[in-house]
Amino acid sequence: MNxxxxxxxxxxxxxxxxxxxxxxVGWAAGRGDHDRHxxxxxxxxxxxxxxxxxxxxxxAAKRVLSLLDEGKIALVAxxxxxxxxNRFMADRQLKRDQVHVIGWPCPGMLDPATGDALKRCTECxxxxxxxxxxxxxxxxxEPELDRFAELERFEQxxxxxxxxxxxxxxESCIRCYACRNACPCCTCRVCFVDQERVGxxxxxxxxxxxxxxxxxxxxxxxxxxxxxxxxxxxxxQHLPLMLLMHKQVRDIDGLFGPYPGGGMEPEGPDPxxxxxxxxxxxxx
Amino acid sequence: MPIAETAHEAQGQANExxxxxxxxxxxxxxxxxxxxLAGLNRMNYPADVKVLRVPCSGRVNPQHVxxxxxxxxxxxxxxxxxxxxxxxxxxxxYAKRRMMVFKRLLEFEGLPPERFQIRWISGSEAGKFxxxxxxxxxxxxxxxxxxxxxxxxxxxxxxxxKEGEL
Lengths: 284, 166
Hints:
The complex is a heterodimer. Chain A starts with a helix and ends in a 28-residue tail after the last helix. Chain A has helices spanning 3-17, 44-47, 79-90, 119-122, 149-155, 159-172, 178-182, 207-222, 230-234, 242-256; strands spanning 23-29, 36-41, 50-51, 73-77, 99-103, 134-135. The longest helix of chain A is centred in the last third of the chain and has 16 residues, at 207-222. Chain A is built from ten helices and six strands; from the N terminus they run H-E-E-H-E-E-H-E-H-E-H-H-H-H-H-H. Chain A folds into two domains: 3-135, no CATH class; 149-273, no CATH class. Chain A is of the alpha/beta class. Chain B has a four-stranded parallel sheet with strand order 2-1-3-4, with helices on both faces. In chain B, helix 4 (91-108) links the parallel strand 3 (75-80) and strand 4. The longest helix of chain B is centred in the middle third of the chain and has 18 residues, at 91-108.
């Protein structure tokens, strides 16, 4: 058992025992050696099952939103989870006093199948939590990575190659909506794809419909994306969804920037929900 | 060959000439008035453009643009008041930011930039409206129908060959 697991269990037990929080959201071990899933501990006994090690690949933050009826919720938060909490607050999904953030400086997660670093962790900007009520362990050095490297490589392709690539990508999409369900920015009560009366999405199952879903989903979350990469991690077809998100984040930074990325601040208008009268003009 | 919906299209098919379908979102207060003025002044411009009046360029959901391109339009034009002149004060500023990012996203996915254009045209700029329509129609005619954008078999085969590599 590593230090982080030990401290997380102790802190969760204490918080649950003295009634500060109704539940603690973290991870627990599954059946396999490195199998970890998001876990909600409601009693001190359950808190002893919590795990915080290098195989906790899933983003736990969104689970908090479904538990708010139970009272104050504690969340074990790495950099990405803490940015998601900021995101929830900016989107009015959560108030700061509804969540107790147990900050956990992230060591970087590993893929349980291969043992390599998770792709979303190789593009991480922020491993230490951006907000927390308490911190487990010492701060870790922030990674110095170019998160747009893959995007830049991709942009070398000709438009025709990109067209072919995305045609291929949208043909493989099975429209399971896992990317939407996992996304901490997707908090609409009724998503546009579920609005049957309005009929945004067609009934047929084609690459065109998948493109419509994929592009619009990416655009809906583009200016708020916290770049956690959870959409790509959960995609059963392994589609490179973060390409679309990184593309928009970099464009926003270049056009309306400087823009550090979503969820870095608890408040403040998102880039596409505000404007400046001296914005760049290119449509004259 | 698709069934012709209008006399213009029937004529186009008869001449074997490609007549594009272009959808122009025009804001009620500026561009639509500009189009009206162009009509009053008997200005000639291609009839390939279907004008769709919206209250404000800020009303144009980017989803509309993508849906139009998927449902048979060969090009989309979004027009509004000049920044600072919006009837609702701020609508076109929001539209501008939104469209700047969305246009880049579509181009990233391989859409030729000419197929989705945005212009600011005021109520007195009838000439600019006509020139814009002429220019956009020319652009789309050069590109051909949307089906012409389909990637060639060679490119698809090359992509398939190095599957797994981005």
